[in-house]
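Quick one, probably user error.
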């Protein structure tokens, strides 16, 4: 877990900076400066681009996670692995471009009534898809070289700073909304350019090819891994974005704007997991390659406890301040209150199962995970078809939380019965008890007149009541280790 902990700490710092920046954009600036239709447009084009670009990678990111250890060789330029990735990306982009042109007219007819603004900017998707495909491939390659930090910084920090600059230009009337959309898309494209320049500077951008390395067994492995990876990634992305897309199609762009902003607050619970799981993919693949089940068990157990603790404090802090959240947002966002709760709860459940997706996805049973995801996609779509008409945007959030919980239950049961991996113990009950007690005490506090002061006081008290017992009882060795490092830096502890 050493490399996971070291990189995850740095990655988590960037993630939290990104959370602050994301909160400033999605939580404050966008809903206060733009109409719900305009917010909905920005969120839906990103959702569509993410969905299509996942297919456009043709599953090669999964190939990187599982098979790069077999290619890795600095002297040979990793046997032309990067060239193979870039060729695959270009083929994938051309395929998605062709599909876009074929289905464009149908999509226009489908969306014109409830999402007319989207039609005006539909062609901009092509640019966004191109850059997202190649960022995914290059970031996956850089992560395989055991540097997961750079991509996290580019996506979580740099990209959001650029978007805030664009919002400022719009707010002061230096650009109009049309120009802002162009600026917004350019901001999402720059990380791809930046990571390319970084790889070139570090001489990690070999464009040599080594087709002799691609023997039949390796080609078969690449083909199978890519096939199941694209199904896996596509299915997982559908789980993450289909609710936004279905809200747009079934209710309209304005409801999509409300849902996407409230979704952001709920998904904040799981943001710290990104940096841990990103590097866990590579470390798990290496452990499976060496058939090191002890290392797998260690990754699983520690990641479950660490992420559960982090996720629980995030969820409790969010819900303890829910009334303050709607002091920040406009009154028209109030229908999204329970969206925040259910998305946050689903995120907490997901975090409590740790690196199960990394472990299963990097094992020889990666095909099983794909089957789980395909079933879950069908369940999620069915849930949304049933629940959105009944409960509106809250129904979409409930459907997402239920679907994600079932997915993690399936992963847990498979790892339990197939490998005997069982990460949960009595400590999870202790953490839960501490969390519930801390929340109930905090809930008794009377609200302060100033909501900013209330957030600070309420969050501080909750953090002390929760974190201090966790540290003193040493419930997570990783958290205690990093806490001790911070205390030593502050010269509080020798």
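Nope, works fine. Designed sequence:
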């Amino acid at each position: 877990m050493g490399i996971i902990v070291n990189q995850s700490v740095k990655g988590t710092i960037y993630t939290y900076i990104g959370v602050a920046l994301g909160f400033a954009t999605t939580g404050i600036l966008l809903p206060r400066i733009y109409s719900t239709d305009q917010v909905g447009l920005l969120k839906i084009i990103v959702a569509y681009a993410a969905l299509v670009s996942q297919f456009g990678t043709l599953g090669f990111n999964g190939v990187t996670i599982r098979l790069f250890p077999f290619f890795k060789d600095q002297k040979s330029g990793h046997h032309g692995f990067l060239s193979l990735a870039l060729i695959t990306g270009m083929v994938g982009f051309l395929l998605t471009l062709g599909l876009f042109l074929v289905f464009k007219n149908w999509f226009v007819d489908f969306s014109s009534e409830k999402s007319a603004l989207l039609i005006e900017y539909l062609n901009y998707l092509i640019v966004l898809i191109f850059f997202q495909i190649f960022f995914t491939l290059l970031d996956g390659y850089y992560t395989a070289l055991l540097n997961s930090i750079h991509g996290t910084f580019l996506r979580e920090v740099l990209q959001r700073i650029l978007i805030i600059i664009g919002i400022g230009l719009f707010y002061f009337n230096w650009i109009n909304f049309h120009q802002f959309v162009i600026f917004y898309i350019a901001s999402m494209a720059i990380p791809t350019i930046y990571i390319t320049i970084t790889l070139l500077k570090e001489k990690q951008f070999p464009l040599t090819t080594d087709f002799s390395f691609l023997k039949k067994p390796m080609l078969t492995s690449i083909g199978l891994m890519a096939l199941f990876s694209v199904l896996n990634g596509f299915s997982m992305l559908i789980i993450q974005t289909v609710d936004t897309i279905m809200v747009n199609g079934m209710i309209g762009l304005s409801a999509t704007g409300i849902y996407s902003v409230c979704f952001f607050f709920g998904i904040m619970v799981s943001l710290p997991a990104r940096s841990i799981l990103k590097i866990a993919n590579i470390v798990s693949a290496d452990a499976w390659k060496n058939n090191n089940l002890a290392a797998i068990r260690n990754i699983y157990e520690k990641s479950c406890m660490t992420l559960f603790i982090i996720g629980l404090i995030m969820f409790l802090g969010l819900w303890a301040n829910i009334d303050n959240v709607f002091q920040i947002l406009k009154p028209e966002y109030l229908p999204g209150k329970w969206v925040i709760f259910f998305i946050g709860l689903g995120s907490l459940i997901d975090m409590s199962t740790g690196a199960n997706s990394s472990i299963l996805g990097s094992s020889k049973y990666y095909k099983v995970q794909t089957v789980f995801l395909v079933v879950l996609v069908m369940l999620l779509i069915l849930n949304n078809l049933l629940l959105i008409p009944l409960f509106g945007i809250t129904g979409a959030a409930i459907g997402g939380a239920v679907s994600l919980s079932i997915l993690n239950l399936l992963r847990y049961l498979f790892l339990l019965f197939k490998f005997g991996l069982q990460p949960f113990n009595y400590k999870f009950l202790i953490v839960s008890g501490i969390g519930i007690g801390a929340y109930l005490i905090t809930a008794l506090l009377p609200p302060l007149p100033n909501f900013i002061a209330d957030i600070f006081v309420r969050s501080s008290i909750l953090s002390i009541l929760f974190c201090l017992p966790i540290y003193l009882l040493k419930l997570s060795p990783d958290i205690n280790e990093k806490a001790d490092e911070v205390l030593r830096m502050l010269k509080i502890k020798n």
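The radius of gyration is 22 Å.
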